[in-house]
């Protein structure tokens, strides 16, 4: 959903609390599910909640219906292991559009952020250094300190890094406004009235402005968006630890190799964010990612929106004239509305919830062909002490050091490792040396774990949705893969396995089953160039537009959405 609220088509059609505390406030409000609203939002994911909050502020009587017992979609906090609160799916916040943060008064409704500095730590596995501590790369907001760190591996790269950051910052400056802009409606522009065409010209302004910002360097920036990220990074740097660390942002959450054309855009996407005025920042949320959803929900309900959990929608209702008129719940209850906004994926929205006879066959076919591959297995771990890395030993043990707040990149000594891990997954095999992003949100938020203990998020890849040889992700396969991940961590931080209190393993099928992420994909469909902007979710139906009047997308499969989070 755009930060500016509903689109013009939707306007025409209409004419910080914990999760448990939020439920209590909601029930005390005395609201009951009515049989008719102005707008129904299917799914209480963070994007759906943003849509509801904006609609309600416009005076549109809105209800949100969530199938799970908890709101937030993938942005949830769950106590899977007693005493340990996990951001069970998404685990870091960025790309929360500043206008949404301000408009919905999220700080007022309890949202508290922990920005990280330093933010990236890549330890090495180095043997034969004569007893010396293995090297590591620590990056933060201090450029001089970054250059000192990089110089361990290459003095030339240390000199080039500020220029690289400046180069990428200009591209971010040019592209960032497009995140808030609905793409041009090509069909309406071709076949609409002269007045409609003139109005649509305004949607071209962000594109024109982006081109003017990049100026004569546009061809170089075009290469960043379309080339393999290895090609881009090779033009800037020579040291593999630096290139691999930067390349993780080009493949994270994507079934792609750093050698895949277009992987540069995924990197750009992950550096376009910012928090509290700090460009490119990713942060932890006090109370876990569920606190983001709770703040948005509180903003919405404070203005009169209704939100209900354990209310799965079975079908979008369509009248005899081919216009949406509400939804049917799985329990048989019908809810009438003038419009329906779906925070579910395009696949669920159009292939499961919408009566197929009302959608063009070509549209249904395109939706069914969306690339939803995901390489991610998320492992949530409870530990009774901090990891003690060979490359940055703690003295005394369990002492909190700056690198503990970072995204810690393991098996990232060089880009070849990332490519090999990808190739194994393409062959149906979980990576033998998976790319691991290890985060310890309790390093900055002590409310998440008992004293002395910590919660650890392991965002790992590459793992296929379907295993080779027809095998399925049963408990044995899950544990075998998690054990492999833990063995890798043990190599970098001996004693890690002995510190584990419990773990929660979520393979791609698990992420799909629990959170409704198709293929386990955190973006609902791949962030490849053929599925972005004009073509998201499919060409001629980009943005929120659907072939069925009164039905709109407001989730991650649309452009733009409210924000994305890892």
From TrEMBL:
InterPro entries: Amino_oxidase, FAD/NAD-bd_sf. Belongs to the carotenoid/retinoid oxidoreductase family. It comes from the Eukaryota. It is found in: Mitochondrion matrix. The keyword Lipid biosynthesis does not apply. Residues 48-387 form the Amine oxidase domain. Interacts with COX5B; this interaction may contribute to localize PYROXD2 to the inner face of the inner mitochondrial membrane. Keywords: FAD, Flavoprotein. Pfam families: Amino_oxidase (PF01593). This is Pyridine nucleotide-disulfide oxidoreductase domain-containing protein 2. One of its GO terms (molecular function) is oxidoreductase activity. Gene3D superfamilies: FAD/NAD(P)-binding domain. PANTHER family: PHYTOENE DEHYDROGENASE (PTHR10668), PYRIDINE NUCLEOTIDE-DISULFIDE OXIDOREDUCTASE DOMAIN-CONTAINING PROTEIN 2 (PTHR10668:SF103). Probable oxidoreductase that may play a role as regulator of mitochondrial function. GO terms for cellular component: mitochondrial matrix. The keyword Flavoprotein applies.
